[in-house]
Amino acid sequence: MADKVIVIGGGAAGLMAAGSAAERGADAVLLEKNDILGKKLRISGKGRCNITNAMPINDFTACYPGNGRFLYSALTRFTNQDLTAFFGRYGVKTKVERGGRVFPESDSAHQVADALIRYAKDHGVEFRMNTRVTEISAINGQIDGVETDVGFLSANRVILATGGASYPGTGSTGDGYRLAAALGHTIITPFPALVPLRTRETWVKQVSGLSLRNVSATIIKGNDTKRAATEFGEMLFAHFGVTGPIILTLSRQAGLWLREGFPVTLRIDLKPALSESQLDQRIQRDFGQVQRKQFKNSLGRLLPKNLIPVIVALSGIDPEKPVHQITRSERLNLVTLLKRLELSIIETLPLQAAIVTAGGVCVKEIDPKTMQSRLVKGLFFAGEVIDVDGVTGGFNLQAAFSTGRLAGISAVEGN
Ligand SMILES: Cc1cc2nc3c(=O)[nH]c(=O)nc-3n(C[C@H](O)[C@H](O)[C@H](O)COP(=O)(O)OP(=O)(O)OC[C@H]3O[C@@H](n4cnc5c(N)ncnc54)[C@H](O)[C@@H]3O)c2cc1C
User: Fold this and answer.
1) Which residue CA neighbors atom 51 of ligand 1 most closely?
2) pLDDT tens per residue, range 183-198
3) Alpha-carbon distance 12 to 43, whole Å?
4) Binning pLDDT at 50, 70 and 90, where does residue 165 land?
């Protein structure tokens, strides 16, 4: 008789796990509390779904600030190339964009979700929608089945793929933590990773929506400039503060320092390609061409239009002052401001607003070669419910797919 495998959660990890178990001959049932599958996957990558990254797979583990090494087996057994080949077989052609980000050529996250569903269906996975798991049952340390809001289902293999606790509207409301904890698993307190940052300064409102490309941003712990982290790339101003790829990447560390009670400063270098003296020379050249203009009208070649009034106000230079009257020290202060535009970070947005949840089921209690629980036989984990989290660039979905694949296969092989 075929093994009975129950998969809890129909996201990226659960769909891959269920399809993989069924492909290996299991009788796989996927339980999903929503009335649609892959709800989060369908909004990922702003609806375009950044499925993975094209960098060499051996470099991947460094891209998970949360327990990258734990993922090594899963990632090398089902790599980024395996993933793109898999989607290729299901009609999803892919393309590589800036930073190695891999997207479907169609720019459609729905196409990705639908391909996964087709994969699972082709191998006979049974889907039960609107079914919420309330308890996982184990007898003498061995899985026995699951309790749902519509009754009990027996099985000797269960794969927990309920996601994290971010974007709860997509279904990931942290149920998996409660289910795993009830079986004795340690839950590393979930916290937001890849999350926008709220600033004390309210001038950000004036430039809300403005995106800055090719800037560098540094977060600094207290006054200790040695305890800092820097990212280069794109960021975005929002009415509450800052967001965008480089800010999201820095947010995990910023959040940790804030929770430790340290003030956190964000320092933006608006002109990272120029040294201070090069920038000064550039400004002198620009000023030389607009000598009679007022200062407030002189920065058009240097800065995005919306940012000019902010910089003018922060510079302390009289906005009406003709450029030729600006003193050397005023100009040097302007250079410093452009190289070190500072914002005080007061908090991260809450967990619900995070792209990914850090924390979760403690990796020490999961066998990385199989994804099986070290505490309960027949219990497997996949995806964001595990205490792993990656930076932006397709790493979180690759982790969900790789751990889902490994859990699905191991649930069948691990007899
Ligand atoms: C806005 C946004 C954009 C993102 N973009 C990207 C991107 O482009 N690239 C990238 O790599 N990552 C991205 N991520 C992160 C990535 O989407 C997630 O890490 C990944 O989807 C996690 O997959 P998962 O299967 O573990 O969990 P989920 O996709 O959250 O799936 C979990 C499923 O379990 C179900 N469930 C929960 N509890 C129960 C229960 N008790 N019973 C039954 N079912 C249950 C939920 O309804 C849900 O369908 C993005 C995240 C967000 C929020």
Assistant:
1) 355
2) 999 999 999 999 999 9
3) 12
4) very high
User: CB neighbours (10 Å) of residue 36?
Assistant: 13
* pLDDT for the residue numbered 291: 87
Q: Whose CA is nearest to atom 52 of ligand 1?
A: 355
Mean pLDDT of 263-276: 97
Q: pLDDT tens, 211-269?
A: 999 999 999 999 887 788 999 999 999 999 999 999 999 999 999 999 999 999 999 99
Tell me the pLDDT tens digit for each residue of 87-133. 999 999 999 999 999 999 999 999 999 999 999 999 999 999 999 99
Give the per-residue pLDDT at 66: 86
Pocket perturbation via mutation, ligand 1, pick of 162, 183, 195 by most ligand atoms within 8 A of CB: 162
Distance 163 CA to ligand 1 centre (A): 5
Q: Quick check: 375 and 185 in contact, CB under 8 A?
A: yes
Structural domains in the chain plus CATH codes: 4-191+358-413 (3.50.50.60), 196-349 (1.10.8.260)
The helix/strand/coil state of 388 is coil
pTM (2 d.p.)? 0.94
Rounded distance from Cα 14 to ligand 1 centre (Å)? 9
CA–CA gap between residue 386 and residue 348 (Å, rounded): 22
Cα–Cα distance measured from residue 401 to residue 11, given in angstroms and rounded to the nearest whole number: 10
Query: Kind of pairing, strands 52-53 and 142-148?
Result: unpaired
Kind plus residue range of the DSSP H or E element containing 342: strand 341-348
11 CB near ligand 1 (under 6 Å): yes
Rounded Cα–Cα distance for residues 346 and 237 (Å): 15
Q: Would the CB of 174 count as within 6 Å of ligand 1?
A: no
Distance 305 CA to ligand 1 centre (A): 38
The residue whose C-alpha atom lies closest to atom 47 belonging to ligand 1 is: 171
Q: Which atom of ligand 1 is nearest to the CA of 354?
A: 53
DSSP tally for the chain: helices H, then strands E: 11, 19
- Using DSSP's 3-state secondary structure scheme, residue 95 falls into strand
Q: Which atom of ligand 1 is nearest to the CA of 390?
A: 11
Atom of ligand 1 nearest to the CA of 15: 25
Alpha carbon of 225 to those of 221, 364, 385: distances in Å? 7, 34, 34
Going from the Cα of 11 to the center of ligand 1, the distance in angstroms, rounded, reads 5
